[in-house]
Design the sequence.
């Protein structure tokens, strides 16, 4: 049986004088999958355990009796990692409340350290081919830590909060580190498509990584993405609803609130839940509701993060507003708002759901909000109305609710009136449709879908080209068995990493070491073949006796010579001015873009533009150019953040063919990273060894994931050449 390791901030147990199992959607979901997976939980036990002997005894008991492995944290770590970084830094930003964000370098260090503790604990117990499912924003660095140490593991991550838009997420000081941590996963799950779309946008804009609809390319690997709306423990609610204790409690509550319409609110006391705005809506509703004795609002607000100043201030604000509203609208017979600031027993909760005529679930931002689903599940054969914020993830599923904007207080007050005056038939029709969905897509279904995709969706990118580590072995073997070698090497994206500004892409120190080796290896002729101008190549490679081929084959400087000249002096470039005019128009409408003019080509660069907008404008430009250039001797290339128009008489393939035609090379290595290099790869020559660097469709025989990797292969290949 396959085994899944669940890494979560808290273990599904409560550790005190004894150890008790905790209830919760995730725990119940995993219990429902025991026929498919053996479960092992990794997490904090919820209390500081100082004594080493107690730690060992507790570790053994948790592992043997409960299938849990503890991660012991000190009180300071809990303060800095959990209360500080996670809940005062990440939580508010993920919920679009940047004004609540607090940052502290000690918190970041603690977050890194605790994430490393979790990763190390997983690695201690992980077997080959285990599945690892990392949970939520507390552990966003763990996937990459696991990936680096154990690439054989199948790693999933699920975010239980919203993922905000790029414009919000970019405010976080450690935005790139957090994204890179998540990209270590094979599958990242979200509650809604909107959250997934925001994640893709942040990865594109902050890391420059493009994505398909549901995966991000990462060299030869892919990080898949998916939408998995979490459900409730439907079986647990069904069992409770059928119990005698529930029946008795429900009857007691009905008697207590006899003759009154009950409006229920249940949530943690958290600023994301929108309680102050809901109270304002209740106040306005009561101002227009004639019979003040006929209605009661029961607000269950579970204490949360009382050590955080913003939460203490929120409680004071809520209690003040409730006192003010009750003072204004109370009668001798009735107090309209009953405020319960403590946890409520499960039986009491189900009974409240069952008797409530209306549930108000109106967060200003919420990842899912399972309270809405719990209320629907408890309205078995009973009427009821759900008022639901459009900013809760559940709004994407529970379409029959009264959907409200929690920032529109008047609209919420009107929805309350609509709910309390709605016919019983309409209530039942709305509730029946939602209840079937909630029961069918419960927590077990959610976990099952996620783990199915983690198990079956491909982690490697499909390609015909052979990927590392076989590439290095092939190149080294071919070098070792050859006596005269030609290396046609593209520059940007192949020998050198791409830069946002082309003039910054100078050779680095390590590259100069490689060039020195190529220069002094008598069996290797080096050709630098690039789209760069001859001025760039001449300046950067002045110390080396290489043949330089500029502008994809238009201009050449032979090894040992100082002068540049055209490879073919019959090339027609009369179309350049017309194309340049079109490009200049697009510069005016695409901030960050610019035009580069070469002797045989014109290039529109949009690497500095907004990635999505730039790509959209590039597609428009390419479409216009195809129509314009139909009868001209020029062709269009849409490369990596560039659109280039060049002569059809110029290509890298033609340049390679020119230089190898009458030369007795027994190996011709061609390496490149974009579409302009494909003309080399398409050559039919038994001596050819073609290598694609990076992503994208290719006709090359082999592929490596980065310029750094390719440089390493070249160095190893030079090591394999026999000595003189």
Sequence:
């Amino acid at each position: 049986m396959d085994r899944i390791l669940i890494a979560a901030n808290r273990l599904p147990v409560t550790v005190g004088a004894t150890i008790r199992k905790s209830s919760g959607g995730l725990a119940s979901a995993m219990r429902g999958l025991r026929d498919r997976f053996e479960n092992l939980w990794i997490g904090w036990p919820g209390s500081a355990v100082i004594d080493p002997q107690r730690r060992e005894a507790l570790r053994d008991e948790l592992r043997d009796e409960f299938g849990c492995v503890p991660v012991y944290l000190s009180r300071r770590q809990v303060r800095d990692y959990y209360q500080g970084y996670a809940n005062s830094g990440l939580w508010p930003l993920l919920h679009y409340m940047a004004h609540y964000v607090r940052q502290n370098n000690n918190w970041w260090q603690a977050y890194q350290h605790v994430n490393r503790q979790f990763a190390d604990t997983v690695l201690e117990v992980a077997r080959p081919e285990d599945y690892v499912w990392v949970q939520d924003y507390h552990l966003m660095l763990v996937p990459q830590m696991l990936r680096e140490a154990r690439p054989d593991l199948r790693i999933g991550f699920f975010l239980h909060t919203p993922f905000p838009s790029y414009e919000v997420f970019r405010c976080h000081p450690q935005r790139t580190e957090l994204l890179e941590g998540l990209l270590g996963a094979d599958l990242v799950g979200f509650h809604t498509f909107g959250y997934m779309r925001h994640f893709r946008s942040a990865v594109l804009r902050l890391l420059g990584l493009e994505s398909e609809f549901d995966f991000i390319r990462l060299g030869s690997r892919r990080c898949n993405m998916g939408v998995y709306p979490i459900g409730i423990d439907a079986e647990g609610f069904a069992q409770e609803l059928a119990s005698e204790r529930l029946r008795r409690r429900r009857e007691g509550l009905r008697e207590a609130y006899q003759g009154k319409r009950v409006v229920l609110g249940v949530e943690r006391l958290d600023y994301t839940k929108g309680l102050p705005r809901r109270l304002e809506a209740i106040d306005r509703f009561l101002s227009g509701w004639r019979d003040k004795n006929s209605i009661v609002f029961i607000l269950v607000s579970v204490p949360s993060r009382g050590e955080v100043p913003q939460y203490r201030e929120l409680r004071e604000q809520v209690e003040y507003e409730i006192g003010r509203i009750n003072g204004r609208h109370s009668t001798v017979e009735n107090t309209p708002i009953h405020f319960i600031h403590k946890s409520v027993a499960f039986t009491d909760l189900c009974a409240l759901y069952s008797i409530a005529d209306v549930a108000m679930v109106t967060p200003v931002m919420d990842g899912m909000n399972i309270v809405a689903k719990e209320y629907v599940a408890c309205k078995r054969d009973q009427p009821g109305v759900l008022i639901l914020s459009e900013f809760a993830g559940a709004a994407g599923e529970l379409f029959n609710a009264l959907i409200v904007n929690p920032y529109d207080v008047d609209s919420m007050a009107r929805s309350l009136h609509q709910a309390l005056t709605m016919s019983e038939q309409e209530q039942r029709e709305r509730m029946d449709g939602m209840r079937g969905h909630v029961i069918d897509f419960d927590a077990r279904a959610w976990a099952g879908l996620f783990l199915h995709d983690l198990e079956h969706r491909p982690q490697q990118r499909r390609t015909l080209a052979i990927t590392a580590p076989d590439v290095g072995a092939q190149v080294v073997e071919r070098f070792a068995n050859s006596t005269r070698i030609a290396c046609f090497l593209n520059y940007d994206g192949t020998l050198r990493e791409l830069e946002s500004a082309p003039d910054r892409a100078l050779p680095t120190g390590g590259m100069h070491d490689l060039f020195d080796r190529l220069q002094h290896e008598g069996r290797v002729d080096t050709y630098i073949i690039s789209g760069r101008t001859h001025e760039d190549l001449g300046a950067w490679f002045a110390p080396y006796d290489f043949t330089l081929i500029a502008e994809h084959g238009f201009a050449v400087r032979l090894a040992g010579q100082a002068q540049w000249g055209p490879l073919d002096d019959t090339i027609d470039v009369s179309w350049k001015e017309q194309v340049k005019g079109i490009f200049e128009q697009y510069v005016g409408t695409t901030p960050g873009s610019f035009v580069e003019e070469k002797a045989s080509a014109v290039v529109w660069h949009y690497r500095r533009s907004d990635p999505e907008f730039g790509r959209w404008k590039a597609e428009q430009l390419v479409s216009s150019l195809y129509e314009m250039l139909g009868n001209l001797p020029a062709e269009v290339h849409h490369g990596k953040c560039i659109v280039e128009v060049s002569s059809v008489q110029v290509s890298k393939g033609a340049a390679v063919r020119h230089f190898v035609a009458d030369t007795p090379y027994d190996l011709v290595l061609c390496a490149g990273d974009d579409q302009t290099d494909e003309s080399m790869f398409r050559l039919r020559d038994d001596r050819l060894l073609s290598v694609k660097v990076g992503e994208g469709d290719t006709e090359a025989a082999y592929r490596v994931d980065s310029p750094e990797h390719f440089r390493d292969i070249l160095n190893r290949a030079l090591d394999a050449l026999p000595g003189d």
Notes: The chain has a mean pLDDT of 91.
